[in-house]
């Protein structure tokens, strides 16, 4: 507003554009007004029948790119140990407290009301349209490679006695940026036969169904995974550049601020081994071995499908 004018007379946070004031614009939802990078929905409710809390977190991500500079990645590798070092300096934990962390709820005197709260349910759902990771060099404008993950879906459901994880990945592509995008060897890794379904489907969950047989052993978790056929172009030049890129990345890694702490609370009483039942199947990949980057001649073979039980 003008100097000396009373509050509310001519004061505006922003000047409304003409199209903003139209009725058609007001009918649009926020989702239609802007292409959001992320949308997060959080729901917390109490189930009146079971008297437990149910938490749901849903995250939807659109396409985004991550520029991977080696110095930044190397610093992030040690940032976890640095935080732990400062945490132990500010909040030291003695041995008795560490041992108490390994005790069960019965041994440390947790009452029935606190046990009941452990039956709360939690559900996480993540959907990502596309993530692009660009492996940059420090002194050249052209990147080494681009790794693209498409249509990632993740769902986790858990309560006091059950756990379920379902995940799928639509496709995973690796582009060799040392050659042109129209080059026949540009896509070093890609899905072999595009069509319906995801490249990777994975399911991990707890179960109370026994293996079967005379032993009648019940596993703690069941893992099932399937991966469709992928196309791999093996160039020794590209592989050597990737390995050299990763090797030199650790030369940028700064020294840790303190020694890594050993967690003594990992020792638990009467620990039993975890039993896992799994079924993993891999469709036969298609592998090409070019004579060189500039040569159109290559050897193509498929090693066959793999199934692990």
**What average pLDDT do the residues reach?**
78
Number of E strands: 14
Gap between N and C termini: 74 Å
Structural class of the secondary structure composition?
alpha+beta
**Main beta-sheet annotation:** 14 strands, mixed
Low-confidence stretches: 1-34, 95-105, 114-118, 265-269
Q: What percentage of amino acids are in beta strands?
A: 25-35%
- Radius of gyration, Cα only, in angstroms? 27 Å
Net shape:
globular
Helical stretch count?
Answer: 6
Percent of residues in helices: 10-25%
What is the string of helix and strand elements?
HHEEEHHHEEEEEEEHEEEE
Q: Can you describe this structure?
A:
- By secondary structure, this protein is an alpha+beta fold.
- The chain is built from six helices and 14 strands.
- A hairpin with a 7-residue loop joins β12 (286-290) and β13 (298-301).
Brief overview, please?
With 309 residues, the protein is of the alpha+beta class. It has six helices and 14 strands.
List the helices and strands and how they pair.
Layout: H1 23-26, H2 30-33, E1 38-46, E2 53-61, E3 64-68, H3 70-90, H4 95-101, H5 112-117, E4 121-135, E5 145-158, E6 163-176, E7 187-191, E8 200-206, E9 221-227, E10 230-233, H6 236-249, E11 276-282, E12 286-290, E13 298-301, E14 306-308
Parallel strand pairs: 2-4, 3-4, 9-11, 10-12
Antiparallel strand pairs: 1-2, 4-5, 5-6, 6-7, 6-8, 7-10, 8-9, 11-14, 12-13
Characteristics:
alpha+beta; 309 residues; globular; disordered N terminus; 14 strands
């Amino acid at each position: 507003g003008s100097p000396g004018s009373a509050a509310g007379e001519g004061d505006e946070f922003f000047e409304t554009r003409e199209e903003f004031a139209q009725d058609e614009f007001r009918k649009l939802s926020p989702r239609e007004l802007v292409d959001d990078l992320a949308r997060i929905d959080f729901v917390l409710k109490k189930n009146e029948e079971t008297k437990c809390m149910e938490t749901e977190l849903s995250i939807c991500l659109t396409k985004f790119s991550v520029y991977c500079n080696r110095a930044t990645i190397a610093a992030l590798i040690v940032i976890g140990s640095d935080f732990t070092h400062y945490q132990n300096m500010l909040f030291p934990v003695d041995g008795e407290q560490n041992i108490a962390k390994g005790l069960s709820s019965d041994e440390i005197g947790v009452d029935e009301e606190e046990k009941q709260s452990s039956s709360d349910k939690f559900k996480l759902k993540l959907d990502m349209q596309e993530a692009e990771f660009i492996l940059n060099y420090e002194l050249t404008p052209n990147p080494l490679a681009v790794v693209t993950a498409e249509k990632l879906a993740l769902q986790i459901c858990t309560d006091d006695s059950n756990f379920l994880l379902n995940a799928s990945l639509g496709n995973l592509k690796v582009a060799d940026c040392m050659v042109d995008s129209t080059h026949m060897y540009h896509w070093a890794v890609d899905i072999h036969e595009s069509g319906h379904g995801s490249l990777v489907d994975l399911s991990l969950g707890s179960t109370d169904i026994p293996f079967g047989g005379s032993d009648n052993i019940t596993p703690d978790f069941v893992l099932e995974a399937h991966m469709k056929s992928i196309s791999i172009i093996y160039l020794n030049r590209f592989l050597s550049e990737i390995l050299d890129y990763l090797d030199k990345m650790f030369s940028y890694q700064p020294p840790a601020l303190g020694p890594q702490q050993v967690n003594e609370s990992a020792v638990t009483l009467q620990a039993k081994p975890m039993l896992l039942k799994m079924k993993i199947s891999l469709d036969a990949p298609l592998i090409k071995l070019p004579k060189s980057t500039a040569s159109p001649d290559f050897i193509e073979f498929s090693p066959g499908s793999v199934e692990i039980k």
